[in-house]
Amino acid sequence: MLKSQIRKQILQARQDLGAKEFAFFSFKIFEQFKRIDLSAIHTMHLFLPIQEKREINTWLIVKWLQEENSHIRLVVPKFMGSFTELAHIELLADVAILLNKWGIPEPVSGELITPSEIDLCLVPLLGIDRRGYRLGYGGGFYDRFLATCRPDIRTIGLSLFEPLAELIEIDKFDIPLQTCIFPWGINYYPESGR
Questions:
Q1: 42 with 71: CB under 8 angstroms?
Q2: pLDDT at residue 32 in the model
Q3: 14-21 own/partner pairs: CB under 8 Å, 24+ apart
Q4: Are the beta carbons of 133 and 169 closer than 8 angstroms?
Q5: Is 187 part of a structural domain of the chain?
Q6: Range 137-170 burial, b when 16+ CB lie within 10 A, else e
């Protein structure tokens, strides 16, 4: 099946989830995330959820980290200039968040963080296969971003649904994730090579 067809199916499956079921899945993913060892993490990158695309509620993770792991510096993406260039901004508790013209929540301002400073990245995805290759929205933003990070960065995907039955067609720019958190558990992909 083509990536475009799989994207369409998963986006529809997200929309078909009832509000309570979606909130429950987000909460269960948050609970699974709390099992991750963060003892060596100083700077963590994560995405803020696009509500209209029914992305996992990462605000649960943000709040918990700010309250229970305040030593971890949080970083979020911000589109700069064009829709192809990502900057990475420190997320402070008092920073204003607004939706950009694409409906993506972003900090209005903040300190720029270089990719080499990031120890762990929570990566958005629509689906993931059993090798750890993710299916995103098709822009390649995260593959380009992760390619600029340190080789030892930890990568964790967050998925509402079980791994895809068929393997995703990949190209030379695709970077597999090391871990994926689902509502019911955590999968590790040691063959990812990162």
A1: yes
A2: 98
A3: 14/53, 14/54, 14/160, 15/54, 17/54, 17/160
A4: no
A5: no
A6: eeeebbbebbeebeeebbbbbbbbbebbeeebee
DSSP symbol at 6:
H
* Under 8 Å between Cβ of 45 and 121: yes
Which residues pair with residue 134 across a beta bridge?
128
How far apart (Å, rounded) are the C-alpha atoms in residues 94 and 107?
10
What is the reported pTM?
0.93
Query: Among residues 143, 147, 172, 139, which one has the least CA distance to residue 157?
Result: 143
CA distance from start to end of the chain: 27
> Residue 114's CB: how many other CB atoms inside 10 A?
11
Strands 179-182 and 185-188: antiparallel
Task: Report the CATH number at residue 43.
Answer: 3.40.50.10420
Mean pLDDT for the chain overall: 91
Query: By residue range, what is the domain housing residue 16?
Result: 3-180
pLDDT, residue 4, reads: 86
Is the CB of residue 146 less than 8 Å from the CB of residue 116? no
Residue 45 lies in a domain: yes
Q: Which residue has the tokens 């508790």?
A: 93
- Match 């529809």 to its residue by tokens: 12
